[in-house]
Amino acid sequence: MIRIKLSTLLGQHKMNQKTLSKLTKIRPATISKMYYEETKRIDINQINNICKALNCEVSELFEYIPDNE
């Protein structure tokens, strides 16, 4: 499973979803789905824009957790 750590990053940067949406030009609803880890797909450009806005690496935005088989 892949975890999206957007909520953690926003907290660290003391930024809200609305501000991130404005900085990245990503729809607020899309940011919200990422924030609550409800999204199924993320565009590479969106990842790029988020990393640019938060000055972070992709590895800080995502975490791989092995599935229990």
Task: Supply database-style keywords.
69 residues; mainly alpha; two-stranded antiparallel sheet; 5 helices; 2 strands; 55% helix
Q: How do you describe this structure in short?
A:
The protein has 69 residues and is mainly alpha-helical. It has helices at 6-12, 17-24, 28-35, 44-54, 58-61, and strands spanning 2-4, 62-64.
Describe the structure in your own words:
The protein is mainly alpha-helical. It has helices at residues 6-12, 17-24, 28-35, 44-54, 58-61; strands spanning 2-4, 62-64. The chain has a two-stranded antiparallel sheet with strand order 1-2. It starts with a strand and ends in a 5-residue tail after the last strand. The model has no long low-confidence stretch (mean pLDDT 96).
Structural class: mainly alpha
Could you state the order of secondary-structure elements as H and E?
A: EHHHHHE
Main pleated sheet = 2 strands, antiparallel
What is the total tally of β strands?
2
Number of helices: 5
The unreliable regions are none
Strand share of the residues? Answer: 5-15%
Itemize the secondary structure elements and their pairings.
Blueprint: E1 2-4, H1 6-12, H2 17-24, H3 28-35, H4 44-54, H5 58-61, E2 62-64
Antiparallel strand pairs: 1-2
Helix pairs in contact: 2-3
